[in-house]
Write a structure and sequence with these properties.
Blueprint: H1 4-110, E1 124-125, E2 131-132, H2 141-145, H3 153-162, H4 180-192
Antiparallel strand pairs: 1-2
Length: 193
């Protein structure tokens, strides 16, 4: 059996060999860390030298940011203008559509001659000036003919005003050609005799 003294002498060459290897490894580590330190220093100084370039880059980024803001503003303005034009176009299309419907109704109504035939309503203007269909628009030709009756005079007046017919106030005098002036003149002549 080996004694502890013998163990030391037995392991001593191994320890020496390990010490040598550690010394070499340590030397290599120091050399490597020195090399890394030099490389880090070089990179650091190179970065410091480029900092003015980064300042230029930052200015360019700010300039581009300003340009993007301008483009965004222009796009927003263009979108708003486009929306306004589309709304205006929709309104005009609605007006044309309404005009075509009224024109079609007028054309079809002109062909109606029999009392039973349906009459298409045509937009007029309300007493408040709002375009729309009159409230009591007749449904048939017969109902239109019946507007001559005295009991329907309010409906006829409403339709006449809705369609802005001029001179309807004189319609009651069509059969009578005598005016107030001629009536007054006749009254003066007859009273003077």
């Amino acid at each position: 059996m080996l004694l502890p003294e013998d163990l030391t002498s037995y392991f001593d060459p191994w320890f020496k060999r390990i010490d040598k290897q550690l010394g070499r490894a340590d030397g290599r580590a120091v050399t490597h860390s020195d090399n890394l330190a030099r490389l880090v220093d070089a990179n650091f100084f190179e970065t410091l030298n480029r900092l003015p370039d980064l300042g230029d880059l930052e200015a360019k980024i700010e300039e581009l940011d300003g340009r993007f803001d301008d483009v965004d503003d222009k796009i927003d303005t263009a979108e708003k203008n486009l929306e306004d034009r589309l709304e205006d176009l929709d309104s005009k299309i609605d007006d044309v559509d309404s005009y075509l419907k009224d024109s079609r109704a007028i054309s079809q109504n002109a062909l109606c001659t029999q009392g039973w035939q349906q009459v298409k309503p045509v937009k007029g203007t309300s007493a408040q000036g709002i375009p729309g269909l009159p409230r009591n628009f007749p449904q048939t030709v017969r109902e239109f003919w019946q507007l001559k009756e005295l009991s329907k005079r309010d409906t006829l007046t409403e339709l006449v005003r809705s369609y802005e017919v001029q001179g309807y106030q004189q319609w009651g005098n069509q059969g009578n050609t005598e005016t107030r002036e001629t009536r007054e003149t006749r009254t003066v002549r007859t009273s003077g005799l």
